[in-house]
Amino acid sequence: MKKVLMVSACILMSGCTGFAQKYVEISDSLGLTPDYAKPIEQEQSTKSFNTPQVPPNTPEGEFETTSSNGLVFKSYVENGKFNRYADVYYPNGQLQSHTVLKDGLVDGWSYGYTPQGKLMSRILYEKGKIIKQEKVE
């Protein structure tokens, strides 16, 4: 329970506002689902993302926590960092976003989905920095 609260607090503290407050609090803090309704701007390519810290004494291996609004966060803890992937699921169990993590940084494609499972967007990261964003229609 202590781990869940610490991770939830970390995720929520680093969140930002957007079109659906609770939806984006966790997702944006993880850099997984930025505000897709806004046009993609040049300045976004310079934005970077810091992966949330793993709570102290968290064992290595599969990690899962559920937020108070029902979103589920899954990842893998390795060397004290979230690694390999970060997945967020809607309360209905549908995948909301999948993001590749390497050595604790977002590095590779991140995919965002609607609650019905339709691909909504793709974001390419390199060592935590946004390289390219695409809205899928």
Automatic annotation (TrEMBL):
Signal keyword on record: yes
UniProt region (Disordered), positions on chain: 41-66
Amino acid composition bias (Polar residues), ranges on this chain: 42-52
Zinc recorded as keyword: no
Signal sequence annotation: 1-22
Superkingdom of this protein's organism: Bacteria
Keywords: Signal
Gene3D superfamilies with a match to the protein in the record: 3.90.930.1
Protein name: MORN repeat protein
